[in-house]
Backbone:
């Protein structure tokens, strides 16, 4: 399995299994199947509300000798309701208990958006905490303390704009962010972000690499483009004797970004894993480069309703 290296030399498998929207009932079987077919990296989050089931599948696979914990990469994320420094470790400990492990390989701040403690999803103004009132650096220091306590090996962020990532790099006391997990696919290529991360030794994970077609209808725009049936991608798939999903994943891997496609279907999971064997050439890459249109499938607008202190402009600094 292709892998990428952290600053200290630790390596994470470059292709992992996404678990957002993987329903209870389906996610247990999907994770077990994934481990059996060779996945060694699972991307989790408490807000996906399926970590206990993911944890049960992992624990059973380890007990059955299918995989050793040391050969498995587990990522999870700090939800928006636990940014207050005193909430960080308890939130991590809940995830550790749910995933049935003593430590995580990677823990990420899920969004640069904060809610009041106990609020699962803020809708009213009084349920939000504006970032100036709960600065990211304070949350980050609590994340650093979790590394010092041996509860997690690496820490990073998700959905951070270049401005927010740069600010955190400058402020961080002991550990500069090691990962930015962001939406990346041919419609949102984020080249400046990739250059910044490379210069600063920050790894990048591409989420929604297949276009996140199973998002709830409320999160979709009526005229949004689809990726898997884009004619350019379909044509390249035919050229390489691959599937459109494999072309999208091979493109992400070729840019040295981790990819974490979500599926609960064994045939697709197998297909996605095999994308590590698909090699695009320079002409293919040039063709795909022309598809960029700055389009976000997961644009954060669900945090920006009436009364929210957050806007798309404050989230993305665009
Ligand atoms: N940090 C963040 O804020 C953030 C945000 C979004 C996502 N993520 C992470 O990234 C992961 C992936 O992103 P995503 O779930 O948004 O979307 P995605 O992986 O781009 O797309 C998932 C969709 O593609 C389908 N699919 C999977 N493999 C396929 C294949 N080979 N051929 C055709 N269709 C295929 C899945 O269907 P089936 O399941 O039915 O096969 C599902 O409908 C998430 O699950 C999550 O772990 C993180």
Residues:
């Amino acid at each position: 399995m292709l892998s990428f290296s952290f600053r200290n030399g630790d390596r994470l498998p470059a292709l992992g299994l996404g678990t957002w929207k993987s329903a209870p009932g389906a996610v247990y079987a999907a994770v077990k199947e994934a481990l059996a077919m060779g996945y060694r990296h699972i991307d989790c989050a408490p807000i996906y509300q399926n970590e206990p089931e993911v944890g049960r599948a992992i624990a059973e696979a380890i007990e059955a000798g299918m995989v050793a914990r040391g050969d498995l990469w587990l990522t999870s994320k700090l939800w928006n309701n636990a940014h207050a420094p005193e909430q960080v470790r308890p939130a991590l400990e809940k995830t550790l208990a749910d995933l049935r492990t003593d430590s995580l390989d990677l823990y990420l701040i899920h969004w640069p958006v904060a809610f009041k403690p106990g609020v699962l999803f803020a809708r009213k103004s009084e349920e939000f905490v504006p970032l100036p009132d709960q600065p990211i650096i304070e949350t980050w220091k609590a994340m650093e303390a979790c590394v010092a306590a041996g509860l997690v090996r690496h820490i990073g962020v998700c959905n951070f704009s270049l401005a927010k990532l740069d600010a955190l790099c400058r402020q961080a006391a002991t550990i500069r962010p090691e990962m930015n997990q962001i939406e990346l696919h041919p419609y949102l290529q984020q080249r400046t972000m990739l250059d910044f991360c490379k210069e600063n030794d920050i790894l990048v994970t591409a989420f929604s690499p297949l276009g996140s077609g199973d998002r709830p209808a409320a999160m979709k725009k009526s005229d949004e483009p689809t990726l898997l049936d884009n004619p350019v991608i379909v044509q390249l798939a035919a050229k390489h004797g691959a599937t459109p999903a494999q072309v999208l994943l091979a493109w992400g891997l070729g840019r040295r970004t981790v990819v974490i496609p979500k599926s609960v279907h064994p045939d697709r999971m197998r297909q996605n894993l095999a994308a590590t064997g698909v090699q695009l050439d320079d002409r293919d890459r040039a063709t795909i480069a022309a598809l960029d249109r700055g389009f976000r499938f997961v644009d954060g607008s669900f945090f920006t309703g009436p009364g929210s202190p957050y806007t798309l402009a404050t989230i993305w600094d665009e």
